[in-house]
Amino acid sequence: MYQPYPSAGQAPEPARPAPPPSVVMAVRLMYAGAVVSAVSLVVGLTTVSSLRTALHKSRPSLTPSQLHDLQNIVVVGSVVIGLISIGLWVWMALMNKAGKSWARIVATVLFGLDTLFLLLGVARAGAAASSVVSILIWLIGLGTVILLWRKDSSEYFTAQSAPRAR
User: Fold this and answer.
1) Residue 103 DSSP symbol
2) Cβ–Cβ under 8 Å, residues 137 and 36
């Protein structure tokens, strides 16, 4: 078998280190967050009929046409927010697995925003089922952030962002 030496005189770039177990687990939790968000979206879409009743109870002065329009706005808004949420979970999983330091910071900021929205949602009277799902997603985010900021994770992100020798 013939294997020529590299002609450019440059050694091949060293392989990137594998993520530590804490980052691997954080990535798994992010994928779990995406799955829970997707299931929540599907369940929400299957209960659209109860949405009309809830909207009518909260705003009895709306005409049937206005009620229908509001229902459509809520459904479309829920789908858009649900898809963005799923996309962010997957994107953050991929970028954190790749060791992008900015992704760890973005994931932490997104967790902070989720904390704020959870507190606002719990403060208002609402459906218990959506609160349970929100709390579950928040717990997944909490576990993710804790794992991303562990010492071995920080060493991984630092190593990944270090300039490569050429």
Assistant:
1) H
2) yes
The band of 5, judged by pLDDT with boundaries at 50, 70 and 90, is: low
The two three-digit tokens of residue 117, written as one number: 């929205």
pLDDT band (50, 70, 90) for residue 126: low
- Identify the residue whose tokens are 């005189």: 9
Q: What distance in Å separates the CA atoms of residue 145 and residue 115, rounded to the nearest whole number?
A: 12
Tally of CB atoms within 10 A around 81: 12
**pLDDT band (50, 70, 90) for residue 7:** low
The three-state (H, E, C) secondary structure of 7-39, written as one string: CCCCCCCCCCCCCCHHHHHHHHHHHHHHHHHHH
d(CA 113, CA 91): 17
Q: What would the two tokens of residue 79 be?
A: 């789908």
Q: How far is Cα 155 from Cα 153, in angstroms, rounded to an integer?
A: 5
Which distant-in-sequence residues (6+ apart) come within 8 Å of 6 by Cβ?
A: 12
